[in-house]
Design a protein that fits this description.
The chain is α/β, with parallel strands linked by helices. The chain contains seven helices and ten strands.
């Protein structure tokens, strides 16, 4: 499952909440933050620390996330996934050990810009923050990222692709909109 949305919508926090509730429904769950699969700073920030196009295309190591997490827990996989590949704070390999996916467990990958990059998820929850709300809610020092999310909306239309959309324009009052197979 992907929990996709801009950082200001806190996709990791929602993924953690979902993971906390699944065991009571008889399903173990693990959360893998997409940020653990960001590229090294030398690649990620090659065009500068505030380049929105680089944020959109260069930060997430899509192949590594598929190779180390999605493929191993998917059909025919080893069942052993890597919880983190890169330590962004220290800008070095995390040196994490592979972990076993619990039998029948649910994997939640949380982070921004996860759709439309070739990753395969069984279910996608998208935290939708409208452009006007993003401009209102984002911290001034992070405003450089706004064009990346505008581009994502235009090129990918993540709300249309998602199985469920959480309207997060007002973080204190999120609204769930089911789509696709869950709307019936």
């Amino acid at each position: 499952m992907a929990v996709d949305g801009p950082e200001l919508a806190a996709p990791e926090q929602l993924a953690e909440r979902i993971a906390e509730r699944l065991p009571s429904a008889g399903r173990a769950a693990v959360v893998v933050p997409a940020a653990g699969f960001y590229r090294p700073a030398s690649v990620r920030l090659e065009h500068g620390r505030t380049d929105p196009d680089a944020r959109y295309t260069d930060w997430l190591d899509v192949r590594a996330l598929a190779r180390e997490v999605l493929d191993p827990v998917g059909p025919g996989g080893s069942g052993q996934y890597l919880p983190v590949l890169w330590d962004v704070e220290r800008d070095r390999a995390a040196r994490a050990r592979r972990l076993p996916m619990p039998p029948g467990g649910v994997l939640l990958v949380a982070g921004p810009l996860l759709q439309g990059v070739g990753l395969s998820f069984d279910v996608v929850v998208h935290l939708r923050v409208a452009p006007a709300a993003r401009r209102r809610l984002v911290a001034a020092d992070q405003a450089w990222v706004l064009p990346a999310y505008d581009r994502y909306d235009d090129e990918v239309d993540p709300a249309a692709l998602a199985d469920a959309v959480v309207l997060a324009d007002h973080p204190d009052r999120p609204a769930l909109v089911l789509s696709g197979r869950f709307a019936g």
